[in-house]
Write a structure and sequence with these properties.
With 190 residues, this protein is mainly beta. The protein contains 2 helices and 13 strands; from the N terminus they run βαββββββββββαββ.
């Protein structure tokens, strides 16, 4: 069987793709251990297992030569003074890159290598971000009332390694400071 070309739309302002093969919903409980303020996390979780982010995937075979793509939507909010974020991941095939294009909202992409090099890049509408191979990455929404919406694409054989980040977290955190979003060192990591 020969694969045929296809197209889809990402209508604005709704941003839900016209083609969806998988819809992932991540609630607060899926980010246990990722937020610095654990008492605030636990209190929030007791009140509601709030929806933090969603991913709309356009699936392709998970093999070399294919591209997986979709839309990521991080909703606005905070746990303590730390903004809502995605779980974050390395790719299982660590020598894999990824592209993000910001459609709506404001935020940051927090990134780091296994060796501890870090980078935090601002995200805003129209901005394209290239995440090189070997860089774990996490989207953070700093908008007060608007979702952070990005289109992403990465090689089909990349896979996801969430476990490494779940164990240690990222070295940098994005918090709500006195003058707006601030990037700080994660005190849990030496």
């Amino acid at each position: 069987m020969i694969d045929l070309p296809f197209s889809f739309t990402i209508p604005l302002p709704a941003v839900i793709p016209s083609r969806i093969d998988n819809h992932i919903k991540r609630t607060l409980s899926a980010l246990k251990g990722q937020f610095l303020d654990e008492p605030a996390f636990n209190k929030m979780l007791l009140e509601e297992d709030k929806l933090i982010y969603e991913v709309y995937e356009i699936k392709r075979p998970e093999v070399e030569g294919e591209l997986l793509m979709g839309i990521s939507i991080v909703h606005p909010g905070k746990v303590g003074n730390e903004f809502f974020m995605t779980k974050g991941h390395f790719h299982s095939v660590i020598e894999t890159s990824e592209i993000y294009y910001t459609l709506k909202g404001e935020g940051y992409m927090v990134m780091e290598t296994p060796e501890g090099e870090t980078s935090v890049e601002p995200l805003s509408p129209g901005k394209v971000l290239y995440v090189p191979p070997r860089w774990a990455h996490r989207s953070v929404c700093t908008s007060r009332q608007e979702d952070l919406v990005t289109f992403f694409a990465y090689p089909g054989n990349a896979g996801h390694d969430y476990g490494t980040i779940e164990k240690t977290g990222f070295r940098k955190l994005v918090v709500d400071g006195e003058k707006g979003p601030e990037i700080i060192d994660n005190p849990r990591i030496n």
